[in-house]
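FAQ: What does a ligand-bound record look like?

Like this one, built around uridine-5'-diphosphate:
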Amino acid sequence: MNRPDGRQIDQLRPISFVPNVAPHATGSVLVSFGDTRVICSATVEDDVPRWMRAQRVEGGWLTAEYSMLPYSTLDRKPRDISRGKIDGRSSEIQRLIGRALRAAIDLKKIGQRTVWIDCDVLQADGGTRTASITGGCVAAAIAFNKLMAEGKLKTFPMKQLVAAVSAGVYEGVPVLDLNYLEDKAASVDFNVVMTEASEFVEVQGSGEEAVFTSEQMTAMLELSKKGIADLISLQKAAILTADRAAPADLASLTAAFGKR
Ligand code: UDP
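The answer part, i.e. the structure of the complex:
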């Protein structure tokens, strides 16, 4: 079995993080998993949803929105607003992103605030939801660092990093981090979210019309565990460098894009 881009079965696509691409957000990053690129931002508002206030729930909230830009796909994808309804796939994905990131954060420590995680897909080539979770976590960490530096938070509210990756059975073989060609051809597709302590947050797996064995499932989860450990090291480096990075300048964007 040869992968379309020549990768090993346990090899991620080239991963990059360009921090601070959206200076008005509290934290932001452009994440790339190969040709999949997502702008992830975290914007912190000094307010909580009405239900939290009504029920006197302590702390704050984190919620996510996901959207594919019209030119992110091969054929132009109309914006939801022009179609007059929210895409079912997008709402499923944004709920997944929110659940994944809430697992990483101690909401009591953020005070009466709401963290908005916005994930906008610039280029889609498979794995946009896993890139969104991985980048969303980096954007949130950058935002919390900023609030700490401004003295608005006393303790860092992120308990641990979370990252996500896909795995699937391609031409009969379990492989890590499917690109679009592989995703389209794969008989089984898993999306795995894990913490830096290698604990699962969520696993979405389906055979669509195919079926899979427990051995294949174990192989996909093991591949994901390795991929997520790699992603978490890269996330840490991105969060550390974000403090020093100026708001996205053309040079850093060119450097990131120039690699491909
Ligand atoms: N895709 C697309 N248009 C859509 C939905 C999906 O072109 O409306 C492509 C896109 O490349 C995406 C891939 O199909 O990354 C796989 O989609 P899926 O729903 O499995 O989500 P993802 O893998 O992006 O999380």
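Follow-up question: can I read anything off the structure? Yes, for example: The pocket of uridine-5'-diphosphate is lined by residues 73, 77, 89, 124-129, 180, 183 (CB under 6 Å).
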